[in-house]
Amino acid sequence: MSEHVYLITIGLPLATVLLIFGMKYFAAIAQAKARLASDEAYRQLTAQAAAAQTETAAALAAVNGHLAELKTRVAAVEKVLRDVE
């Protein structure tokens, strides 16, 4: 058996093991980056939802104000109609 064949026979399994661990390491890094991007997207979505909820609450308060004004006007019109009869 020649020296080159012996070194290749010993070196290939070692290189294979190192390659597998390297691939697992880079896969873990890629997974962590993807998780970080996903978490950031959820944070942005939560911030947008909170802003939309605030805007909706303000719009609802405005609608309630207009509704109260409308109720007051209808009550005044009903009073006038009762007085006319």
Structure report:
The chain has 85 residues and is mostly helical. It has one helix spanning 3-84. The mean pLDDT is 94. The longest helix is centred in the middle third of the chain and has 82 residues, at 3-84. Helices cover 96% and strands 0% of the residues. The chain is rod-shaped, with a radius of gyration of 36 Å.
Topology diagram in text:
Elements: H1 3-84
Key features of this structure:
85 residues; mainly alpha
Short description:
Helix content is 96%, strand content 0%.
Compute the number of strand runs. Answer: 0
Question: What is the succession of H and E elements?
Answer: H
Shape designation: rod-shaped
What Rg is obtained from the alpha carbons, in whole angstroms? 36 Å
Number of helices: 1
Poorly predicted tracts of residues: none
Proportion of helical residues: over 70%
Sheet with most strands: none
**β content, as a range?**
under 5%
Give the N-terminus to C-terminus distance in angstroms.
122 Å
Kindly state the mean pLDDT as a whole number? Answer: 94
SS-based class: mainly alpha
